[in-house]
Amino acid sequence: MCGIAGLLYKQGEGPIGRDVMRMTAALEHRGPDSTGYALYGSPDAKRGEYVAWVKVVQGDELGAIEMRDYQRSEIVRVATALGASVHELHSRLDYALRMDFDFDGELKRLIDSVEAVGPEVEITGVGRAMELTKDVGVADHVAELYGVGEVTGTHGMGHARMATESTVDVSHAHPFWAYPYPDICVVHNGQITNYHRTRRLLEGRGHRFRSHNDSELIAVYLAARLSTGSTLRESLELALGDLDGVFTFVAMTEGEMGVAKDELAAKPLVVYEDERAVAVASEEVALRQVWVEEIDTWDPYDSEVMTWHKQSLVPA
Amino acid sequence: MAQAVTGTGVEAVSVPGRDRDAREINADIRRVLADGVRDIVVTDPGAKHNLGVGLLTPCRISFDGSLGYFGCALGDGIRAHVKGRVGWSLAENLMDGEVVVEGSSGSSTGAAVRGGTVVVRGNAGARTGISQKGGAIVVGGDSGLLTGFMLQKGRIVILGDVGRACGDSMYDGEIFVGGKIASLGTDAVPGELDELDAEWLSRTLDRYGLEAPGEWRKVVAGRQLYNYDQLEPMERKIAL
Amino acid sequence: MSKSGRMENRSSIWTQEVIEDIATKAEIGRYRMRGFNLFKRIPQFDDLTFLPATLTRFVIEGYREKCVTKTVLGSRLAERPLELEIPIYITGMSFGALSRNAKIALAKGATMAGTCTCSGEGGAIPEERQYSDKWIYQSIQSRYGFNPYHLREADMVEFFISQGCKPGAGGHLMGQKVSPEVAAMRDLPPAIDQRSPVRHPDWLGPDDLKIKAEEMREATDWKVPVQFKIGTARAYDDVRMAAKCGPDTILIDGMEGSTGAGPHILTEETGIPLMAGIAEARRALEDVGMFDEIDLVASGGIRNGADVAKCLALGAKAVAVGTAPLIAMGSVQDPDTGIEAWHTGRDPAGITTQDPELVARLDVDEAAQRVYNLLHAMTLELQMLARGCGKTDVHNLEPEDLAALTVEAGAMCHLPIAGTSWVPGQDPDTEARDQRLERIERELVMLRRAVESGGEPPEGAAVPGAGDDEVAP
Lengths: 316, 240, 473
What we know:
The structure holds three protein chains of three kinds. Chain B contains two helices and eleven strands, in the order E-H-E-E-E-E-E-E-E-E-E-H-E. Chain B has helices at residues 22-34, 195-207; strands at 13-16, 39-43, 59-64, 76-82, 96-101, 117-120, 133-139, 153-158, 174-177, 188-191, 217-221. Chain B has an eleven-stranded mixed beta sheet with strand order 1-2-3-4-5-6-7-8-9-11-10, covered by helices on one side. The radius of gyration of chain B is 20 Å and the shape is elongated. In chain C, 35% of the residues lie in helices and 13% in strands. In chain C, the strands form five sheets. Chain C has an eight-stranded parallel beta sheet with strand order 5-15-14-12-11-8-7-6. Chain C has a two-stranded antiparallel ribbon with strand order 1-13. In chain C, a hairpin with an 8-residue loop joins strand 3 (71-73) and strand 4 (82-84). Chain C is globular, with a radius of gyration of 27 Å. At the B-C interface, helix 1 of B face helix 1, helix 4 and helix 6 of C.
């Protein structure tokens, strides 16, 4: 159970990190366990074509420092061997690396090879625009760890998590990236009750899961749909039919933001749109962090799907 | 606006909401009421939750903006006015009085209301009037899924359209819909409007400046579930 | 074997009860309703035993030396925590399920014992507050009779999420007990079969619950403790989540709990034993660092002072009882079925009926005295066991004072089997083994780097498996 927030600027770029962080912080009472952000930044934020955030081993026990050094140099070696050109592997935190790179081969192969470097090595997200950072802790804390407040861009989303059944650790925090497709991720509020059946179905088709978090299922499901040619809107509508339970979620791609409201209307969602931007969140208090004065927000009805394209003035 | 409540002649007081949490704002409201003030304006409520909860002193209270969840809940004898919109569970368990919202409301509007009148001029979300036990809820726009779910007593009036499963599992009470009904719920059946209904509707809409629709649809309880769990064959005997 | 020498039915699948159940359903075409608690045998408190002090511990004299029973609940956030003389109180049972006289007798009996009662579903009759020195007001899914005035009068608010007997279902009251008076209080048509909703009307998930808990606090000016009542099912997850929603106390109700009326199949097939629930709840609170902040209360099938003591030892601060005081007041069993005659509304003892003639049979003061007697007797038993374990305060009972008599009980409560040091499900060697594996992994990595860079192996790196003190040549 959680709080979700999404924001898309309609006229160019803006302080997306700061705004999404404030929206997410306002929902902390819905989710104090972990926080995550997916921000779609400007091209200036990187030198290469892609950015990936990579987690390596955490901790201070004997050998951990050496292990981190080893993993870091291995990651560069492996990526380079596959033909990637790594411009930078910057360590914001000792266990979280930001990899700025060019690559024109099969992204899935690169991701798998990098993750094979060690059991703790995990790419939490890859994108041409998307940077996905998440960790244990509240909104402000996680934002500070990853420098979220300084990011400018076109759209982004945040998630404040209250763990239901799976554990509280980084890999179970949202957003969930739809491996191996760049720039696609999801934040979710609710609980999917046919998780196991749907997961087995998707695994049978070659998709991979990293956690036991039911929210990851939505990301993988959308990726499966998008990869077979469905649009984001179509994928969201199909998801509402195929998934069971109560769930309201926000999905983002390089150019779009989409929301789906659950059939039983059990999870809240508030929307606001003006010429400046469009925002969605679990509660109005989140939107009021961006629009301080009184605004005319509205709630979608059950089973509603909405999508918006960046730099357009009408819904897609 | 409703007629003024009797007070002690003390002037209206403004309670600031900006940058303060609900506990502080509510404590201020209570303090001001204890001082004999009966006209209160809360400025910049900022869509916060639990504002105006548990007010049992008849008074007029106005919110210059939007409320979050549980706005004006558990009150008795209040006359509340919200200039913006509200989140979920507006006026839940209202005992008596009047709560009027200019904008829209979220889900569970008027949950478990026992008396008085709750008015939303905009749209309402899902489960409007869930477990209502008395009083009246009036919505100027549309209302969502499961409107009137488990309605026990009282009236729900929706001028616009209502979503699926309207009146599901209702025990008693009446639902009046001006627009379309997506579907009726379990044990909810169409009812016949009578003169008393028509008079009451007309009076109520007039009072709040709402325009009557072309025609009304009425939904009432089918009463088929009243004694579903009957005694078993062996239990039809008298004790001692 | 029968007299004729032929085999008799000994099937454990198609028992007489099962055969009768199927025959009845073939006639009535729906599920069966009854009151009372589950019939089937489950691991429960009888499978635990105390390990009193002997030579290794100092025993407290049975009747002379002190053994404190005073209990304070809800000092986390409330201005006025609930103070009780004993760690046992009367749980919520609705007026509707119980008669007016029964509710008054319980109130008086509890007050004599220095403890409290709870309103239960369906709102409160004024006599409850009048005769209870301490009183808990319950907010339940149906909100029948719920009003902010009674809320203000309470010493604690109990927010009901589910009950142990039938988690996942709402309350039931049969038509024959929905008298005109009960119906008026609940705003229902008289004589209908009341089925309460299982979800609350104004919040739908734990993410909204925190806001709802604060609404209760705003309505009571943050003065009184807020308790969440949860039927034990996914106890660890539920309690862990509940702890994040801002309560002062959490009551967990085991599958042994009774009901005034409910579907038989739910009573039998839902929930987990209370002792497992307490162990899980305790673990959940410890994992979020709130075990000494949020008080645990336990209920469900608590029959005597030993059950109370076991709950306290496992981690509860207090217990709530329901069935036991009803039996103490004189609740009778239906002579044909042998189960407590609760859901039919024709209880000849006048306890679980709304029929005025039958209700009049219950002598309030005599019943109150019997309730007090039971509570007093249970407290004496509790103290006896606590003293035996060397405690001068019953709240100092701890899990180490118990042993399990069965493997199931040991696994559920994380306790050793009596006479052994084996706790089913825990392998004491796992942690040490995992640590050793991790160290070996790291050394391998360091070694590999050294080899690749062509230099000497780093200091401290050993050849794995060759023993800790050897260094590779």
